[in-house]
Specification:
The complex is a heterodimer.
Chain A lengths: L1 H6 L1 H12 L5 H11 L3 H18 L3 E6 L2 E6 L3 E3 L4 H12 L4 E5 L3 E4 L1 H16 L3 E5 L3 H9 L8 E2 L2 H7 L2
Parallel strand pairs in A: 2-4, 3-5, 4-6, 6-7
Antiparallel strand pairs in A: 1-2
Helix pairs in contact in A: 2-4, 5-6
Chain B lengths: L4 H19 L6 H17 L9 H20 L19 H17 L2 H12 L4 H8 L3 H29 L2
Helix pairs in contact in B: 1-2, 2-3, 4-7, 5-6
Classes of the chains: A alpha/beta, B mainly alpha.
Chain lengths: 170, 171
């Protein structure tokens, strides 16, 4: 193992990922433990991978209640594009919850494409069909431009100030 | 075989992870088990019981396994030991430390492009095969290695900073 461990980065990372996920298997785990107990470099790689996995596993999206309004925020820099995990997280959150007053905070969304716009409209339709309201907050200049070009901002109310946005639900 | 203080401290850190991985990082007895393992290892090496230095890690790992087994046996002395040892609880850390780490991780995550995050998520979190990741993201193996190395470098720096922070704050 030692040779491949230090020559093949991908194989080493695969072993580390499986060890941390506890899917490596008994003898391979023992072999890896015997290795990292004597190898400072690989031990540090494992600790770094642990943090990386922790960071990747953090929810990309969170919701907070402000009175009877649910504010949905992205916890880090996000993109609402066809391949982004933030977009799936947003749709999943909207589908699984029955909130009727929803404010989506877009201030950390740096890019949106046609899939993102489609899903955003899907969320809007979902909310309206359930006798709810969906509004947008603080889109970044790039996102604001796309919302304006597609005239979505004339359908979905968009606000720059959170207090004003929350007030508008009353 | 004689280890320097620095080497012993490094081994202690590794054993702490090894024991925590096995019995849970939230276990209050974790440091006692690490200390017991170290004590047995140092006694054995002073008594010259370790003939081949290359086998040191396997020897320490064996001692560590025994110490953990004895600990579990003590815990279950008054009741039958379960066939399957329950899954350790989720790792817990003090709120303040968690906050510091969270901030550092947020910073590092921001430095990753959306594409890099997807690649890393497929590989580390979803455990997809390398071939699958390459195909899904339209990458060559060389591109993939670069993404892995860049991301790991950032997180290695965070790990080093968090170790320094813990050492400075006495954790």
């Amino acid at each position: 193992m030692e040779n491949t461990f230090h020559t093949d980065t991908v194989a080493r990372e695969r072993t580390i990922a499986r060890y941390l996920a506890r899917t490596l298997g008994g003898s391979a785990s023992e072999e890896f433990e015997n290795h990292y107990l004597c190898c400072d470099g690989c031990f540090e790689e494992m600790r770094a991978a642990e943090l990386l996995i922790w960071g990747l596993g953090q929810p990309a999206i969170e919701s907070v209640r402000a009175g009877d309004v649910t504010v949905i925020r992205f916890t880090g820099s996000a993109e609402l594009t066809s391949s982004s995990s933030e977009l799936s997280a947003l749709v999943q959150m909207m589908d699984t919850r029955g909130d009727t007053k929803v404010l989506i905070d877009l201030q950390r969304v740096s890019r949106i494409d046609s899939s993102g716009l489609g899903k955003l409209m899907q969320c809007y339709t979902h909310a309206v069909r359930n006798a709810g309201v969906l509004k947008l907050l603080q889109p970044t200049p790039q996102v604001k431009r796309v919302l304006s070009l597609t005239k979505i901002d004339s359908v979905v109310p968009t606000f720059e100030d959170e207090a004003v946005a929350l007030q508008s639900f009353q | 075989m004689r280890l320097s203080d620095v080497e012993i401290e490094r081994l202690r850190q590794k054993l702490r992870f090894r024991v925590g991985y096995e019995i849970s990082f939230a276990c209050p007895d974790i440091d006692d088990l690490v200390q017991e393992t170290l004590k047995r290892f140092l006694n054995a090496s002073q008594a010259d019981k370790l003939r081949t230095p290359e086998a040191t890690a396997a020897f320490v790992n064996g001692i560590c396994r025994n110490v953990i087994f004895e600990y579990r046996r003590r815990l279950y002395r008054d009741m039958p030991m379960p066939e399957i040892v329950p899954e350790p609880p989720v790792k817990e850390m003090p709120e303040s430390e968690r906050f510091e780490l969270r901030q550092a991780l947020d910073e590092a995550m921001k430095q990753l492009s959306q594409r890099d995050r997807m690649v890393l998520r497929y590989f580390y979190v979803e455990e997809r095969s390398t071939e699958e990741v390459l195909e899904l993201m339209g990458l060559t193996l060389e591109n993939f290695r670069v993404v892995l190395c860049r991301a790991k470098e950032r997180f290695r720096q965070i790990y080093s900073r968090s170790v320094q922070y813990r050492a400075a704050s006495g954790h």
